[in-house]
Design goal:
Layout lengths: L3 H4 L1 H100 L4 H8 L3 H15 L11 H14 L1
């Protein structure tokens, strides 16, 4: 077999040119694919940047809303604390009212001053006043008339001293 034609310069040069041409086409194709891939990655990067900016804006909005809600919660806690204090005050006042209601019922049932002092923890003057009021309400004691002028008071005092 004659292999001389394979070793001749024009054939080698042609084969070499063909290989280089094929290699150039392959490289050109790779470069185009890389360019397309690079452009696609740039677009994706721009899209992700826009999404990131949008998300940052939303995060700022959420932060401002949370700060506002925190202030509102703080205000509501202050109001609740005030209301709890007020409820405690009213309950305390109501306990006093219950105490006087109990004392009133005890007087109606015939309790004396000492029982009111012990059971309802009333001072002696209040217990006596409670007894007097309940007796007047029940009609057991006469209610003196209200007198506005000092002259009438003197006259009433003379009448009372004259009866004795």
């Amino acid at each position: 077999m004659d292999t001389s034609w394979m070793t001749s310069a024009p054939v080698v040069a042609g084969a070499l040119a063909l290989v280089l041409l094929i290699l150039g086409l392959v490289l050109l194709r790779l470069k185009r694919g890389q360019t397309r891939s690079s452009e696609h990655l740039r677009q994706q990067n721009r899209h992700l940047d826009k999404e990131l900016q949008k998300t940052n804006k939303q995060l700022l909005e959420v932060r401002s809303v949370v700060v506002g809600l925190g202030q509102r919660v703080s205000e509501q806690q202050d109001i609740i604390q005030h209301l709890n204090e007020r409820i405690t005050e009213l309950e305390q006042a109501d306990n006093d009212g219950r105490l006087y209601s109990r004392a009133s019922k005890m007087v109606q049932l015939g309790a004396d001053v000492n029982e009111l002092i012990e059971e309802c923890e009333l001072p002696k003057a209040e217990a006596e006043l409670m007894m007097s009021l309940q007796n007047k309400i029940a009609g057991k004691e006469k209610i003196p008339p209200l007198e506005s002028s000092p002259e009438r008071q003197k006259l009433a005092a003379r009448k009372r001293s004259g009866r004795r």
